[in-house]
Amino acid sequence: MKNTMDRRSFLGLTAVGALAVGAGLAGCSPQQQTTAVANGAPESEASARAGIARKEGTSTKECDVAIVGAGAAGLLAALKLSEAGKSVVVIEKAPSAAMSNFSMCGGPTACETKLQEQEDATVTLDTMFSYMYDFSRSGVNGALLRNALANTGEAVNTMLDLGIEMELMEDTYGVGFRGRHYILPEGEERVAPLVEAIQTAGGEFVFSTAAEKIIMEDGVVKGVQTDKGIDVMAPSVVVCTGGFLGGEEMQLDRFNTKVFPLGNTLSDGTGINMVLDAGGAWDRNFSVLGNECGAVSAATEGSPFNPDWTNVNEHYGYWLFGGLYTDTAGERFINEEKIAQYPLAIGGEAIIRAGKAYVIMDSDYYEAVKGDGIYAYLGEPESWIAGPEADYYKTTPENADAHLQQAIDEGWALKADSVAELAEKFSLGALEEAVERYNAYCESGVDADFGKSAAFLKPVKTAPFYAFEYVPSAWGTNGGVKVDSHLRAMDKQNNPIAGLYVAGVDQGSVYSMPYYTNEGASVGLALGTGVYVAKEIVSAVE
């Protein structure tokens, strides 16, 4: 049993009784939040639109398939293609596959796996597809979603066969099935069996090498240009570089706000830009895997987590608790209870939508959280499944004063004698009216604006009052270029670009907005698309 809690073991219980995984994929550990490799600086999106320059390489590698990215999708695609007899070269910007988000994530959701069968908890493809497609409100490519999910079981079973240990999680959020597979090893220990199996099957890795451009001739895919002067020539290219968490320009373009990166910043949108440069088009859905351990401030530098995965400043945790939240105008903008229930999925999207968000509370709330904790203060609502675990991120008497003063000094918190002072400090023009309205709902027990349950309605009445300003933070991004149901990149006329495939989170046609509420959906779909794209390439050339 684990004795300490980490951000991958938040919200629920594992099969062995230890604290469990949060709402979905989480990214790299703080120790792996590296800056971009010097020789792998990304092309900006503006440059991509103008056309990425073609630079003839000084050497070439010939293969059947060039794969850009050694994360979940890239590794599974490379393994299945190599086992099928295809010559494969994997191009990876990092010095090893152990720097991907996949190497540190909690684990995938999958259907029809060995572990599910062993525990008499098999999740059928129909069950998982129906849940996720219904959640998306038909906003994703339904055929692609089904094809990807249909291959998640093979992906998980392949990893199990390679000795990568997993545990089948309980149904943490009441979705009706046990889909999440918690991967026990991390980092190099996790990816090494896959890398070794790929190499044994004849696949080749080119590490510390950044892909720069899809080589096209007369509209036909010819290979990949790299920053090391190596042109990897192949009639089929798979782009799966892990999204754009490290790409500030793309964040601003897609989200209209910057997102503090918790995961792998080497995933900077370069892969997406290469596909756009080759004639691809954007899809519509963009979501983030939000910070399920609370929030961060504009003053946050480095990792917001301690080695035991508590928040560096305990006042980050209020974003989890479902109190009174406002936008930059000082107005409520969401049922805050939903964020407490699904902090990674819905919480991440809510703060992206707002750009900045403010948690407002009075002294009764503040002291209760610091003392008995938020779960007890709310009366231990049974509907808040993860509530008993959320207090891991509460303020504590031994740290509260110092952490509050730090937050005030850094400019993202205020303790005041009146709500008016809070409003003035953060220019929240509508705050006083919002608090008055909210307090009336707390008194009546009915939230007439957003329908928050009575248990989460706590008034803001007793001085002193507190405000905390938060900004978006995430473990990764979901969404990118448009693909068809075979993972072929689509051009601006909605025609597939032969030979150019996009898998994992670089494609935007299977990930919903907001992020799916069944935990592990992001990495599960990445693994499934990796297996599926390999089958599509093999069948396309046979």
From TrEMBL:
Keyword Oxidoreductase: yes
Keywords: FAD, Flavoprotein, Oxidoreductase, Signal
Ranges where the FAD-dependent oxidoreductase 2 FAD-binding domain occurs: 64-512
Signal sequence range: 1-26
PROSITE patterns: PROKAR_LIPOPROTEIN (PS51257), TAT (PS51318)
CC cofactor: FAD
Keyword Flavoprotein tagged: yes
InterPro entries documented for this protein: FAD-dep_OxRdtase_2_FAD-bd, FAD-oxidoreductase_2, FAD/NAD-bd_sf, Succ_DH/fumarate_Rdtase_cat_sf, TAT_signal, TAT_signal_bac_arc
The protein, known as: FAD-dependent oxidoreductase 2 FAD-binding domain-containing protein
Record lineage: Bacteria, Bacillati, Actinomycetota, Coriobacteriia, Eggerthellales
